[in-house]
């Protein structure tokens, strides 16, 4: 008996956005609460970051708990509880080993689905979107759940004013389904990049193999997140702007064609500078950093979920996504917002 020929994905197969969801810890932490400890003020924090509050996960909560919450909402939004793969972008996995994505998949009833973590810090969600699009384009999956989830508060030095006021915890998610490149919701093209020569700009020095095999005990401060704020600002604006322009060029679009820019929610001033560099009016930028802070890999999907819920993102609108993070890493993509149900 002759074996049937291998199946191949149809031409022009694309990843299409089919659902969105988000999850935040139950209690917000205001600037005033942090300012009392950090010799700062609400006005100082707002003027430099655009943030007025953020959410910190309570004791007993892990990154997987937030990821499950966001993933469940995205699956519900998509109209079906099924997915062939789960990709989790995070810098704060539940454990160094194993990956957190399989745990999330099992808790969502997706045991047996392919599942893996993506580590690209604040660019992680865009990298995960690209990986998911590749799985769908190759015919390896029909539906992929992509989650960005962080408990960044676990990495912060509570007495470091330069970082403790910026970051927050949360999770956002989208469901991608196989579809056609010409239909609303189709992702692409993508632009991705990295520069490992500047790994020192955004880092947690201790805890990995380099420090553990150095023979030197880690200093207490090396267990916390650290960054060079001025240099990060400069690189973030330059890399996100160039990446966004590259995606628009590949898609045959002009800045005027973009209805909404949804960038990584790093700092409101960064978002505004990127918009200016790309040539997109600032009023077309969606930002929720004032309410949730910088949630790293969760920031773009959380922003998409809120913008959708608020009615800012409507069917037919052209949306540009761009991000920058440690590594250094950066990435962008573009899509036409599809018609999605709102909870």
From TrEMBL:
Catalytic reaction equation(s): malonyl-[ACP] + acetyl-CoA + H(+) = 3-oxobutanoyl-[ACP] + CO2 + CoA
This protein's pathway: Lipid metabolism; fatty acid biosynthesis
Report the enzyme's class at the first EC level.
transferase
Segments of this protein annotated with the region ACP-binding: 265-269
Family annotation (InterPro entries): ACP_syn_III_C, ACP_syn_III_N, FabH, Thiolase-like
The alphabetical list of record keywords is: Acyltransferase, Cytoplasm, Fatty acid biosynthesis, Fatty acid metabolism, Lipid biosynthesis, Lipid metabolism, Multifunctional enzyme, Transferase
Active site residues per record: 122, 264, 294
Give the Beta-ketoacyl-[acyl-carrier-protein] synthase III N-terminal domain ranges.
116-196
Chief subcellular location equals cytoplasm
* Superkingdom of the organism of origin: Bacteria
One biological process term in Gene Ontology: secondary metabolite biosynthetic process
CDD domains, alphabetized: KAS_III (cd00830)
Instruction: Reply yes or no: does the keyword Electron transport apply.
Output: no
Q: Which residues form the signal peptide?
A: none
Q: Does the keyword Ribonucleoprotein apply?
A: no
One molecular function GO term is: beta-ketoacyl-acyl-carrier-protein synthase III activity
E.C. number(s) listed in UniProt: 2.3.1.180
Q: Which family does it belong to?
A: Belongs to the thiolase-like superfamily. FabH family.
Subunit details: Homodimer.
Which NCBIfam families does this one have? fabH (TIGR00747), PRK09352.1 (NF006829)
Its job: Catalyzes the condensation reaction of fatty acid synthesis by the addition to an acyl acceptor of two carbons from malonyl-ACP. Catalyzes the first condensation reaction which initiates fatty acid synthesis and may therefore play a role in governing the total rate of fatty acid production. Possesses both acetoacetyl-ACP synthase and acetyl transacylase activities. Its substrate specificity determines the biosynthesis of branched-chain and/or straight-chain of fatty acids.
Q: What is known of its domains?
A: The last Arg residue of the ACP-binding site is essential for the weak association between ACP/AcpP and FabH.
Q: What is this protein called?
A: Beta-ketoacyl-[acyl-carrier-protein] synthase III
């Amino acid at each position: 008996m002759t074996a049937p020929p291998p199946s191949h994905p149809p031409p022009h197969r694309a990843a299409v956005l089919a659902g969105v969801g988000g999850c935040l810890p139950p209690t917000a932490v205001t600037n005033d609460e942090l300012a009392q400890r950090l010799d700062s003020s609400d006005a100082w924090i707002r003027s430099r970051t655009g943030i007025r509050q953020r959410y910190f996960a309570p004791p007993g909560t892990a990154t997987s708990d937030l990821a499950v919450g966001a993933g469940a909402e995205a699956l519900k939004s998509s109209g079906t509880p099924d997915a062939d793969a789960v990709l989790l972008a995070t810098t704060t996995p539940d454990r160094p080993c194993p990956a957190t994505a399989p745990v999330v998949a099992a808790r969502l009833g997706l045991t047996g689905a392919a599942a893996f973590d993506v580590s690209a810090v604040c660019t992680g969600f865009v990298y995960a979107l690209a990986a998911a699009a590749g799985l769908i384009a190759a015919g390896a999956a029909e539906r992929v759940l992509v989650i960005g989830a962080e408990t960044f508060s676990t990495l912060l030095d509570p007495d470091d004013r330069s970082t403790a006021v910026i970051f927050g915890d949360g999770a956002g998610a989208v469901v991608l389904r196989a579809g056609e490149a010409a239909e609303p919701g189709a992702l692409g093209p993508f632009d991705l990049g990295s520069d490992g020569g500047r790994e020192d700009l955004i880092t947690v020095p201790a805890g990995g193999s380099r420090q553990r095999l150095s023979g030197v005990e880690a200093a207490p401060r090396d267990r916390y997140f650290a960054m060079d704020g001025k240099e990060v600002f400069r690189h973030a604006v330059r890399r996100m702007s160039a990446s966004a322009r590259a995606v628009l060029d590949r898609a045959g679009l002009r800045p005027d064609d973009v209805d909404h820019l949804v960038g990584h929610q790093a700092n409101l001033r960064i978002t505004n500078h990127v918009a200016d560099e790309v040539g997109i009016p600032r009023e077309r930028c969606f930002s929720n950093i004032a309410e949730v802070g910088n949630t790293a890999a969760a920031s773009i999907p959380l922003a998409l979920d809120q913008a959708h819920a608020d009615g800012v993102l409507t069917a037919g609108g052209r949306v540009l996504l761009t991000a920058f993070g440690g590594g250094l890493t950066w990435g962008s993509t573009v899509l036409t917002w599809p018609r999605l149900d709102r909870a």
